Amino acid sequence: MQAAAPLRPHRDDVRIAVGGLLGGLALWGIGLPVNGGRPLGGTWALVPLVVMAALELLRRTRPRLAVIIGTVAVIADQFTDGNLATVLMFTDLMYAGALYGTPAAARRLPVVTGLLTVAVTLGFVAWWRKPEAVLVGVLTGLVSFAPAATGMLVRGHREAAQTERLRAEQTALLAELDRTQAVTAERARMARELHDMVANHLSAIAIHSTAALSLDDEDTTRTALKTIRENSVDGLAEMRRLIGILRDAGEDTEPVAAPTLAGLGALVEQSRANGLDVRLTVSGAATGLPAPVELATYRIVQESLTNALKHAAPGPVSVAVDRSDERVEVRVDSPYGDRDGPRAPGSGAGLVGMRERAALLGGTFDAGPSDDAGPDGNAGSWRVHAALPLHTEGGDPT
Question: How far is CA 36 from the centre of its chain?
């Protein structure tokens, strides 16, 4: 909806009206008429002048009305001695009509004035049959078509400038949204990476420290302290690696290789050292995988073993990685039931991270209790299942 035009005239329009009226009075006072030998002489020339000055107050708020009445006034001025200020103010009304009028009126005004100019020229040429008749058409064009066309051009430039400003604002807004989304995505990636790298070590430290405090046995305490030290050193190394990546020390910093499926054996051995009975099965070619898929597979297995260490009931944990031509499937089954030993606290961020990694690659992820027999043959297990397509247009799973 178009906003209603203001009732009060613009201060610039008031200045134009006052200036035109005073200028016209000065020209009339010194006896400088435009026309000669017209039927209405004397003070009659002041009537169109005053009307035109009043219309200048409407040039911005009611441009269409000002053009219509102004046209009548300038025609009436031709029957008086005339006044140059009246004609000049009329040209300003034509200019303002194209500049401030509605888009449809602004488009029609140059066309109408152009046709009027041609018609007046042809009419006077046919009437007078003299070359001087062309000058009447030229004057008509100067006071009607020229200002209307100028107003239309200025309006076009203003609209183009406004469009460019809006486009620049939209571009800046989109850039800010992209920046915000990039920061959010990077924060999520860092959170996943930090959780997957450190949670396993901290969970083992929490469980073994609880066991060392609850059991009064020297050998158990020594074993627990040894495991705690190993996980502390490994966790510290992982933290230093992540901090080094974030700081981006410079070109001399060697790139850190991302975990691969070849590292699953070492990951399983570490889990066994932490007290898990893990069985690993890898079928299909373990090489030639896309780097994002390989990293996501490793992280899902790592987080699943971390969750098993924190929450699973006693018993073996099975890890199966199956690579086909189309996808890589990861299945981790651990005993599901009551746990007698110490637990490490969990926040659920691990499941969220695994689901995000699968979704970024266009894969699927499920985790929950399963009625199938567990790895130890007992009923009931907690199953983590992820299917990651090898050919995907997804983003970086890290």
Answer: 67
Give the type of residue at 271: S
**77-114 per-position pLDDT tens digit:** 888 888 899 999 999 999 999 999 889 888 899 999 99
108 exposed, middle or buried (CB, 10 Å; 0-12, 13-18, 19+)? middle
pLDDT at 372: 66
Q: What percent of the chain has pLDDT over 90?
A: 26
Residue intervals in the chain for CATH 3.30.565.10: 260-337+347-398
Q: pLDDT, tens digit, for every residue of 192-248?
A: 766 666 666 666 776 667 666 666 677 767 777 777 777 676 776 677 666 666 665
The dotted CATH code for 260-337+347-398 is 3.30.565.10
Contact call for residues 307 and 300 (beta carbons, < 8 A): no
At residue 344, the pLDDT reads: 52
Do residues 300 and 331 make contact, with C-beta atoms less than 8 angstroms apart? no
Instruction: Answer yes or no: pTM beyond 0.85.
Output: no
**By mean pLDDT, which of 41-45, 197-201, 345-349 is the weakest?**
345-349
